TrEMBL record:
<keyword id="KW-0460">Magnesium</keyword>
<keyword id="KW-0547">Nucleotide-binding</keyword>
<feature type="domain" description="GHMP kinase N-terminal">
    <location>
        <begin position="71"/>
        <end position="150"/>
    </location>
</feature>
<protein>
    <recommendedName>
        <fullName>Galactokinase</fullName>
        <ecNumber>2.7.1.6</ecNumber>
    </recommendedName>
</protein>
<feature type="domain" description="Galactokinase N-terminal">
    <location>
        <begin position="2"/>
        <end position="36"/>
    </location>
</feature>
<dbReference type="InterPro" id="IPR019539">
    <property type="entry name" value="GalKase_N"/>
</dbReference>
<dbReference type="GO" id="GO:0005524">
    <property type="term" value="F:ATP binding"/>
</dbReference>
<feature type="domain" description="GHMP kinase C-terminal">
    <location>
        <begin position="242"/>
        <end position="305"/>
    </location>
</feature>
<dbReference type="InterPro" id="IPR020568">
    <property type="entry name" value="Ribosomal_Su5_D2-typ_SF"/>
</dbReference>
<dbReference type="InterPro" id="IPR036554">
    <property type="entry name" value="GHMP_kinase_C_sf"/>
</dbReference>
<comment type="similarity">
    <text>Belongs to the GHMP kinase family. GalK subfamily.</text>
</comment>
<dbReference type="GO" id="GO:0006012">
    <property type="term" value="P:galactose metabolic process"/>
</dbReference>
<keyword id="KW-0067">ATP-binding</keyword>
<dbReference type="InterPro" id="IPR013750">
    <property type="entry name" value="GHMP_kinase_C_dom"/>
</dbReference>
<dbReference type="GO" id="GO:0004335">
    <property type="term" value="F:galactokinase activity"/>
</dbReference>
<dbReference type="InterPro" id="IPR006206">
    <property type="entry name" value="Mevalonate/galactokinase"/>
</dbReference>
<dbReference type="Pfam" id="PF10509">
    <property type="entry name" value="GalKase_gal_bdg"/>
</dbReference>
Length: 327
């Protein structure tokens, strides 16, 4: 049996696939997968009341792409994966922006292997291939690294150019981080996420660079310039957030969350009306800062609440928890 946690990204959105910076952490909620020896692969998604069965992993749509893709990618990487009866259950809402997909991938990988591999970064890349090539969502490595490499009571500063993972203590005192579901669910594969990735590739081509980590502003026009401006400024906000946390300046962290949301809304155009209404409600309730989390186009909103501010209705407290593990 294995557990894969969901994640919250404190700051650094849409930067991972641009070789940028981010600061995620694993949360208490996640996905649990059990694996028992069997003659063929049987997968029961208990929360959906659905089953899949296969001998060899062929392409499939929806949730069935995850276990099939995981078996195929683990075998392609040289792991011995025997047929198993898998059961899947979890408490990370799908489409919430809390990375139920990476939680599922991590839990599937560990359950099928029956152990935690030494090279977690390589396993994160493998999980990402499942999502990219089997599910059809062009995600980066942020979610998988957060689920597999997190540490309790810490956020991770991840540099996606070097794939360096650096834990930073998260001491909020009597402040709280909460998430609130906007009510607008999203599917990364079906949203504007893949389009944003294509726009980033187009910006790189126009600038003659490999990734937007090397970009500077003022050389493009219109949509592509806005996309570049978000990535460049969001990387700077990650560095500023790390410094603010080290200094214990939570008010500055709140301002940076607000700036991140404005950039995601205006420059990356990844928001929807339900998300905007949720951000406004949290700010009106006294949040020091609030922003959309995840791929955008729906999902959850993260807010930083000062001590003494009452938790709004529907808010779920999030704090850094341990990484994916065997149970």
């Amino acid at each position: 049996m294995a557990f894969g946690p969901g994640r919250v990204n404190l700051i650094g959105e849409h930067t991972d696939y641009n070789d940028g910076l981010a600061m995620p952490f694993a949360i208490e909620r996640g996905v649990t997968v059990t694996a028992e020896p069997a003659r063929r692969f049987t997968v029961d998604a208990l929360d959906l009341g659905e089953r899949d069965e296969f001998d060899e992993p062929e392409r499939a749509d929806g949730w069935k792409a995850f276990p099939r893709g995981m078996v195929a990618e683990l075998r392609a990487a040289g792991f011995d994966v025997a047929p198993a009866h898998l059961t899947i259950t979890g408490d990370v809402p799908q489409g919430s922006g809390l990375s139920s997909s990476a939680a599922l991938e991590a839990a599937l990988a560990l359950a099928l292997l029956g152990r935690v591999p030494e090279d977690l970064k390589a396993l994160a890349r493998l999980c990402s291939r499942v999502e990219n090539d089997w599910v059809g969502a062009e995600t980066g490595l942020l979610d998988q690294l957060a689920s597999l490499c997190s540490r309790a009571d810490h956020v991770l500063r991840i540099d996606f150019r070097s794939v360096e993972v650096e834990p930073h203590p998260l001491d909020l005192g009597d402040w709280q981080l909460v998430t609130v579901d906007s009510g607008a669910t999203h599917s990364i594969a079906a949203s504007g996420y893949n389009q944003r990735r294509e726009e980033c590739r187009a910006a790189c081509e126009a600038l003659g660079i490999d990734t937007l980590r090397a970009a500077t502003l003022g050389h493009l026009d219109g949509v592509l310039e806005r996309r570049v401006r978000h990535v460049v400024s969001e990387n700077a906000r990650v560095e500023a957030t790390a410094s603010a946390l080290d200094a214990g300046d939570l008010e500055a962290v709140g301002r940076l969350l607000d700036e991140s949301h404005a950039s995601l809304r205006d420059d990356y155009e990844a928001s929807v009306p339900e998300v905007e209404a949720t951000v406004e409600r949290l700010k009106a309730a006294g949040a020091a800062g609030a922003r959309m989390v995840g791929g955008g186009f729906g999902g959850s909103v993260l807010a930083l609440l000062p001590g003494g501010v009452a938790r709004p209705a529907g808010a779920f407290v999030v704090a850094p928890h341990a990484a994916a593990r065997l149970l």
